[in-house]
Amino acid sequence: MPPPAKKLNSLPHWHIPNFVLRVENLDHEGATVFFDNVKPKEALKLAVETSYTWLYTPLTAPRHVETITLVLRSFDGVAYTSGTHVDKEIHFSLDYIAGSAVRAKDEIQGVLVHEVVHCYQYNGLDTCPGGLIEGIADFVRLNAGYVPPHWKPAGGDKWDKGYDTTAYFLDWIEQRCGRGTIRKLNAFLKDRKYDTKVFLAVAGDSVDVLWNTYCQELKKHDGQKGQV
Fold first, then answer.
1. 174-179 long-range CB contacts below 8 Å, 24 or more apart?
2. CA 101 to chain CA mean position, Å
3. Whole domain around residue 76: which residue ranges?
4. Mean pLDDT by 10-residue block, N- to C-terminus, for the chain (228 residues)?
5. CATH number of the structural domain spanning residue 114
6. pTM of the entire structure?
């Protein structure tokens, strides 16, 4: 008998790690806001799947992360990610969560997406500029739809300023060159040191040419809005 035909939907599923939650102060207002707006396991799973969707395919998604621990505690700032190759920790400020109560659900999910990207993205063997690292994380957040009200495209002297500035620039490249361009950029950073030539390889121009074109388009767009 001939072997059974392969199913068309035989692609591997996303690898979902174990999730651990640690809350250092359940009496904190931020803890109340968090649990009133978010189901931790579902929110972390969504953040992992979002990171995979924009940076990988089911065949290329990394499987090394075994555990992601979310730590809710009081500290200045927003959040940060640390840990080992297989065990990651996301520290999320209860004070920040408390201050985001007005739009808590989207803000919490957006921060979780950003930090989970840091668990999975490549970094040019630790040579990638911090601004690009943060920009890629916010690029994923931007495309996931968790955009804070103060975000907007902005030009300036530096394309790698990071966060939303770089995220909008990367999104412009994605739209200009086609879906999956930033996925290719991330893939280039897997096994080689960072070099600005990566932009020539994935987007067809140097990063300086791309940035100048982007800034010119922003100015043109702003000028047209001013004439309305």
1. 174/139, 174/143, 176/203, 177/202, 177/203, 177/204
2. 22
3. 12-120
4. 47 88 98 98 97 95 97 98 98 98 97 98 97 98 97 95 98 97 97 96 97 96 65
5. 3.40.390
6. 0.92
